[in-house]
User: What shape does this take?
Amino acid sequence: MANQTLDVRGMTCQHCVNAVETSVGALDGVDNVNVDLDNGKVKVDYDDSKATVENIRDAIEEQGYEVIPQQ
Ligand code: 9UX
Assistant: This one.
């Protein structure tokens, strides 16, 4: 099991939260998604034998949001 917290730009309303939670939550291997709208954070618990951080990033970007690269 793995956990990532991604910084995501562009989520401004509850519809954005739903779009991200639904799309990331639908990925194979993702167990839990939590969006912190105020701080622009997306926390994801996932099975890293089934999903990668790249899969998660792609799902968020497909919904039209920008994932800020980690330093
Ligand atoms: Mo409404 Mo959230 O257009 O981007 S879904 S602000």
In short: The chain has two helices and four strands. The pocket of dioxo(di-mu-sulfide)dimolybdenum is lined by residues 12-13, 15-16 (CB under 6 Å).
